[in-house]
């Protein structure tokens, strides 16, 4: 179990001297820091975090650092300085793990990694709340493979598979690597898979996919999956810009918050299915995990995993509102 706050002078990871034990915020505050806080998934996660905290008598602060590692370091430092009792962090760079874990540990502040695992200096994991990346990618790949079989494209069509990847993030590699395995198991040839590198945003996926399509003029039908819904959305937009029909695209999202938008409006789309993941569930679990440990003194569980469900245009509304 982490040591509680001691009345000694500490240096924060941002280089600011902090007096441990000096709480300048609500005595029952927890903080969630997100790498892409304007994405709907993280907005939902923040809502779940706040709601659970309030239910349990705590206040919650949400901080968006928009893929900026320096902002993330500062946000952790500020949360510690303000007297936060616990922090949930989706780090923009997993390499931040040792620094933020050390800072939180020295200050006696509980820390959980949300969505993306991070490690301490000794190589042990920071307690994690989120999803199982391999299981997620497996479900996406299985559905993509089923749709590919049903399409008839395996019988002589000139198809390709776009694997849109955040290649610097282990949790994303877990997802897309597992999806590739399942699509190949369904009958796709390994050499039909084209890797597209992006940073987790729709804009970079769009920009990176365009040249790939130009470089593969012989392909007239595409299967698409990615680390998140934004990756699939960007690739779908690139395909649309290149003149591909929705019927010539089998895209399986991961998140469903972008995939459901054309479904809700009844607009033809490359999105044929998506793995629904609830950011609210992760936020709720992170807050409850932190508060339970704060109140009881029990160690944080090393891994808390949320459930996922494949949805499509016919059943998504049974699981989500698509706001």
TrEMBL record:
Residues 32-294 form the Periplasmic binding protein domain. Its main location: periplasm. It is found in: Periplasm. Keywords: Signal. GO terms for molecular function: carbohydrate binding. Residues 1-25 form the signal peptide. One of its GO terms (biological process) is L-arabinose transmembrane transport. One of its GO terms (cellular component) is outer membrane-bounded periplasmic space. InterPro entries: AraF (IPR026266), Bact_Solute-Bind_Prot2 (IPR050555), Peripla_BP_I (IPR028082), SBP_2_dom (IPR025997). This is Arabinose ABC transporter substrate-binding protein. It comes from Halocynthiibacter halioticoli. The lineage of its organism: Bacteria, Pseudomonadati, Pseudomonadota, Alphaproteobacteria, Rhodobacterales.
């Amino acid at each position: 179990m982490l040591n509680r706050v001691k009345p000694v002078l500490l240096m924060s990871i941002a280089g600011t001297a902090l007096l441990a034990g000096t709480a300048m915020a609500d005595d029952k505050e927890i903080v969630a820091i997100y790498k892409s806080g304007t994405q709907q998934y993280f907005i939902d996660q923040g809502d779940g975090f706040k709601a659970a905290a309030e239910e349990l008598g705590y206040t919650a602060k949400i901080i968006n650092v928009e893929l900026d590692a320096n902002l993330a370091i500062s946000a952790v430092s500020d949360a510690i300085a303000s007297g936060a009792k616990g922090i949930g962090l989706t780090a923009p760079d997993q390499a931040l793990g040792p620094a933020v874990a050390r800072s939180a540990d020295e200050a006696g502040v509980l820390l959980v990694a949300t969505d993306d695992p991070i490690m301490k200096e000794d190589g042990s994991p920071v307690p994690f709340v989120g999803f199982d990346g391999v299981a997620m990618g497996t479900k996406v790949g299985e559905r993509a493979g089923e749709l590919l079989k049903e399409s008839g494209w395996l019988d002589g069509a000139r198809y390709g598979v776009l694997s849109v990847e955040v290649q610097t993030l282990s949790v994303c590699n877990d997802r897309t690597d597992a999806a590739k395995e399942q699509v190949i198991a369904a009958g796709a040839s390994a050499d039909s898979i084209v890797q597209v590198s992006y940073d987790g945003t729709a804009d970079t996926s769009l920009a990176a996919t365009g040249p790939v399509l130009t470089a593969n003029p012989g392909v007239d039908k595409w299967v698409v999956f990615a680390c998140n819904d934004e990756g699939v959305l960007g690739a779908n937009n690139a395909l649309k810009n290149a003149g591909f029909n929705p019927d010539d695209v089998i895209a399986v999202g991961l998140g469903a918050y972008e995939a459901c938008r054309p479904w809700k409006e009844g607009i033809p789309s490359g999105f044929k299915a998506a793995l629904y993941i609830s950011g609210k569930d992760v936020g709720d679990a992170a807050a409850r995990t932190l508060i339970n440990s704060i109140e009881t003194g029990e160690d944080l569980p090393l891994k808390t995993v949320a459930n996922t469900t494949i949805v499509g245009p016919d059943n998504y509304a049974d699981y989500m509102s698509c706001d």
